Amino acid sequence: DTAVSQTPKYLVTQMGNDKSIKCEQNLGHDTMYWYKQDSKKFLKIMFSYNNKELIINETVPNRFSPKSPDKAHLNLHINSLELGDSAVYFCASSHVGRSTEAFFGQGTRLTVV
Amino acid sequence: TQLLEQSPQFLSIQEGENLTVYCNSSSVFSSLQWYRQEPGEGPVLLVTVVTGGEVKKLKRLTFQFGDARKDSSLHITAAQPGDTGLYLCAGGETSGSRLTFGEGTQLTVNP
């Protein structure tokens, strides 16, 4: 049983296109995240939703728009893709508490050509 | 913004050697977690420490949280090729859901 699943795993697209990444968790967690991992493997938080409400919105271009239709789903839509958007995007979920432990999906490797 | 510095960034050792990875910050965290990431996969949680001075052991891995809850270390005894991977520390903030990740330590254990 997959705990956090995201699709697609690989995404190759041309500059200027619009694309979406989907994420679903079956852990019953109340919080979901999008992280970006660059070529140096640094994981940077982009967004966080708690019970469908946006609670963390880092300095991310507004071409990136997250949407959480319910607690178990968090999607990421990216408009007008640029070369610099190429990275691995991870979805994660957690139950917020004293120790917020994140469970990650397998990642989506986005390549913009 | 809270920052976590990990050292070393890269570590290549022979099977059977011991190693320690450090995670340091000037900020206090409510918890400190260690994750391991393998190529093509997402990070997987290894351990969480929440109390200053806490030590946890997971087989050959020993994790320690600093007394002031600002730093942590991961010690691996008798490393094996299967330990190869990217080790990430992450600090949990007292105020809520944010996790701040360190830059990671890429460990390679050669047979």
Gist of the model:
The complex is a heterodimer of chains A (113) and B (111). Chain A has 113 residues and is mainly β.
Find the structural class of chain B using helix and strand composition. Answer: mainly beta
Q: Quick one: biggest sheet of chain B?
A: 6 strands, mixed
Label the overall shape of chain A. globular
> Per DSSP, what share of the residues of chain B sits in E-state strands of 2 or more residues?
over 45%
Task: Spell out the key features of this protein.
heterodimer; A: 113 residues; mainly beta; 4-stranded antiparallel beta sheet; 0% helix; B: 111 residues; 6-stranded mixed beta sheet; 5-stranded antiparallel beta sheet
Structure overview:
The complex is a heterodimer of chains A (113) and B (111). Chain A is an all-beta fold. Chain A contains no helices and 11 strands. In chain A, strands 2, 4, 5, 6, 9, 10 and 11 form a 7-stranded mixed beta sheet that branches. A 4-stranded antiparallel beta sheet of chain A has the order 1-3-8-7, with no helix packed on it. The model of chain A has no long low-confidence stretch (mean pLDDT 92). Chain B has 111 residues and is mostly beta strands. Chain B contains no helices and 11 strands. In chain B, the strands form 2 sheets. In chain B, strands 2, 4, 5, 9, 10 and 11 form a 6-stranded mixed beta sheet that branches. In chain B, strand 9 and strand 10 form a beta hairpin. Classes of the chains: A mainly beta (113), B mainly beta (111). At the A-B interface, strand 5, strand 9 and strand 10 of A face strand 4, strand 5, strand 9 and strand 10 of B.
